[in-house]
Amino acid sequence: SDPTFVPIKTPDHCDRSSGTESDDSSIRSVRFSKLAEVRHMSESDATEALLARLSYQASVRAGEHARRQANKFSIQKIAKIALMFCLFWFMANYTYQISLEQTQTAIVTVLSSTSSLFTLLLAASFPSNGGDKFTLSKLATVVVSIFGLVLVGISDLTIENNNISTGIILALVSAFFYAAYIVFLKRKVDHEDKMDIPMFFGFVGIFNLTLLWPLFFILHYSHWEEFEWPNSHQWTFLIINGLIGTVLSEVLWLW
């Protein structure tokens, strides 16, 4: 940086003789400048100087943290990604909630687990890295996971007259949108450290509220989903479900 000159502050000393000084007045005294030159170290030099004072392991961790911070997405880029995926998120959640209303919870739970199968197939079709390659071991793991959920909820599974209800179809649609949401988001964000997850979901909520409000009137006046103002008991469950069932679960899923 450009030099800055500041005055030097020194304590005043009394000009007293100790009795040992020479009386030779021809000896010249040394004069120092009353100004000090100050230069500010650049940020890069300051960072390197700080890392040089750390231990090896601490410097490695500090360097990795600095690289992650440098690679973080800007607010504008996070908002752009949220705009691209807000409809995926809305469709996945909306079809899931409607399927719960139209069919049994056990059936919806089992069918929602098929999102892992959709994720496996979509990731193999649209890979974001070499780890997304389709393998028989991955397929076996997914099948075992789905089979385990079937065993857990088999006592409650009853499909009358072997008819496939609308709720079952909606549950499968929800599972597909969840899988598409995860797979394509991973293609845009290769590492979770690059994106602020709470900010991402905040933008998703803002865009859904801004873009999808006309659906409120369409669903209400078409009598597909009539709006009724919730009572205090319903408000409590809506808030709990929104904070825990939606926000917390989504954040933990992506984190």
UniProtKB/TrEMBL annotation:
Tree of life domain: Eukaryota
Region (Disordered) residue spans: 1-25
Q: Per the record, GO CC terms?
A: membrane
The places in or outside the cell where this protein is found are: Membrane
Q: Which PANTHER family match?
A: SOLUTE CARRIER FAMILY 35 MEMBER F5, SOLUTE CARRIER FAMILY 35, MEMBER F5
Alphabetical list of InterPro entries matching this protein = Ammonium/urea_transptr, EamA_dom, EmrE-like
Q: Which organism is it from?
A: Solenopsis invicta (Red imported fire ant)
Q: What protein is this chain from?
A: Solute carrier family 35 member F5
Q: What is its main location?
A: membrane
The EamA domain is annotated at: 166-255
Q: According to its record, how does it sit in the membrane?
A: Multi-pass membrane protein
> Is Transferase included in the keywords of this UniProt record?
no
What is the annotated signal peptide range for this record? Answer: none
Residues spanning the membrane: 78-99, 105-124, 136-154, 166-185, 197-222, 234-254
| Family (UniProt) | Belongs to the SLC35F solute transporter family.
Instruction: Write out the entry's keywords from A to Z.
Output: Membrane, Transmembrane, Transmembrane helix
